[in-house]
């Protein structure tokens, strides 16, 4: 029997836990008509919190309404790819909408002045215009049938900024022209922050923000129960509690725990073929923690500055929340300096302020992961003299 759990980035899970409200809001925005605020949205949150699968789910809502959905990743040349996709759309009928560059106009610039534009600026302006034209052409047809276009843009990051500007210019026009469109983009919190704070992209600040976080354990438990029973096994109340608690409500961990527990129940059918036992659950949780380290903690730490990592290592010496003043001491820095990193880590959803003057880990099992890695011991050794 195929394993129903999907611990793979971007893979739609058997049950999308705890996100009904977001989906309902987007459905409302689609049905509410042109200009509904929820049609311009950005989705942020830590790695593995479910941004990509959220984009997929939002796309499904639009598809159900017969919208055209274009999913893109904000890697280099995404504007070009969007334009190509729009032009390849079925039932097009009209020829290319590329304008000869001589007839392009850039806001506030006489046509003649264009030869003076730098090539990058020129390309950006051309992309914005071509994209807008391609959208308009497509929308002219779709809107007759009350349909629209949703564009989702995943993995938005600092390097996407120049192209985001072209996209934003075009989007702004399309919205102003009251076209039947929706845009949703997603990225890590700090990345999206950079984009939102860019001067040229100010209008994106008005976009609705969905900061995805942990999901309630009761819903996690219910999802385990449904998924396990619908796939021909049974788990008792204790086992379900154990599975749910081990996830800490972190979406990626739901799939990891489910996957490895299910796998163990297939390999080790100590009791019966149809039962997912507490032993299976415990073994699954053990495996899941190891995988979480490889797949989430490792990459998350790699993406931090050396000082950011040191800050986390200093936190890992505590068994619970850490006083920010203690951390500064351990880092041998003043509080102001240490707080710069505290702020960054909070922004990245890696830690959170648990109470005034205290921080704790937000990514589950990160403390254990840090403790198991050599750097922790090294630091501990260095500090043992000073404490
Ligand atoms: N609400 C949810 N309920 C259950 N499982 C989920 C949920 N959201 C995401 N998952 C699962 O978590 C994993 C990670 O999801 P996804 O790849 O969408 O995260 P992400 O936020 O895009 O991560 P990254 O920042 O690395 O791109 C996938 O295995 C997915 O099936
Ligand atoms: Mg993703």
Automatic annotation (TrEMBL):
<feature type="domain" description="Orc1-like AAA ATPase">
    <location>
        <begin position="16"/>
        <end position="183"/>
    </location>
</feature>
<protein>
    <submittedName>
        <fullName>AAA ATPase</fullName>
    </submittedName>
</protein>
<dbReference type="InterPro" id="IPR041664">
    <property type="entry name" value="AAA_16"/>
</dbReference>
<dbReference type="InterPro" id="IPR027417">
    <property type="entry name" value="P-loop_NTPase"/>
</dbReference>
<dbReference type="Pfam" id="PF13191">
    <property type="entry name" value="AAA_16"/>
</dbReference>
């Amino acid at each position: 029997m195929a394993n129903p759990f999907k611990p793979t980035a971007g893979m739609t899970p058997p049950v999308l836990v705890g996100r009904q409200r977001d989906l309902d809001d987007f459905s409302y925005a689609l049905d509410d008509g042109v200009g509904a605020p929820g049609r311009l949205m950005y989705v942020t949150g830590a790695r593995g919190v479910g941004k990509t699968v959220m984009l997929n789910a939002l796309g499904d809502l639009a598809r159900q309404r017969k919208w055209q959905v274009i999913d893109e990743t904000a890697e280099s040349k995404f504007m070009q790819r969007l334009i190509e996709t729009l032009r390849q759309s079925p039932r097009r009928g009209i020829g290319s909408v590329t304008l000869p560059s001589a007839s392009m106009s850039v806001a506030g610039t006489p046509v003649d002045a264009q030869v003076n534009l730098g090539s990058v600026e020129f390309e950006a302006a051309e992309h914005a215009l071509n994209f807008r034209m391609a959208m308009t052409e497509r929308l002219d047809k779709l809107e007759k049938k009350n349909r629209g276009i949703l564009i989702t843009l995943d993995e938005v990051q600092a390097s996407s900024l120049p192209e985001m500007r072209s996209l934003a210019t075009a989007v702004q026009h399309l919205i102003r022209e009251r076209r039947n469109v929706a845009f949703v983009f997603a990225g890590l919190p700090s990345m999206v922050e950079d984009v939102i704070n860019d001067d040229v992209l100010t209008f994106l600040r008005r976009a609705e923000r969905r900061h995805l976080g942990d999901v309630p354990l009761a819903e996690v438990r219910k999802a385990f129960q449904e998924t396990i029973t619908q796939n021909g096994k049974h788990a008792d109340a204790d086992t379900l509690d154990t599975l749910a608690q081990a996830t800490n409500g972190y979406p990626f961990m739901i799939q990891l725990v489910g996957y490895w527990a299910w796998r163990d129940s297939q390999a080790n059918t100590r009791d019966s073929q149809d039962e997912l036992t507490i032993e299976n659950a415990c073994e699954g949780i053990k495996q899941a923690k190891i995988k979480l380290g490889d797949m989430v903690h490792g990459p998350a730490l790699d993406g931090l500055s050396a000082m950011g990592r040191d800050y986390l290592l200093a936190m890992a010496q505590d068994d619970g929340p850490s006083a920010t003043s203690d951390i500064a001491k351990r880092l041998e820095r003043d509080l102001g300096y240490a707080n710069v990193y505290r702020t960054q880590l909070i922004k990245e959803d890696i830690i959170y302020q648990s109470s005034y003057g205290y921080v704790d880990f937000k990514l589950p099992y990160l403390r254990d992961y840090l403790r198991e890695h050599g750097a922790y011991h090294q630091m501990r050794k260095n500090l043992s003299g000073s404490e």
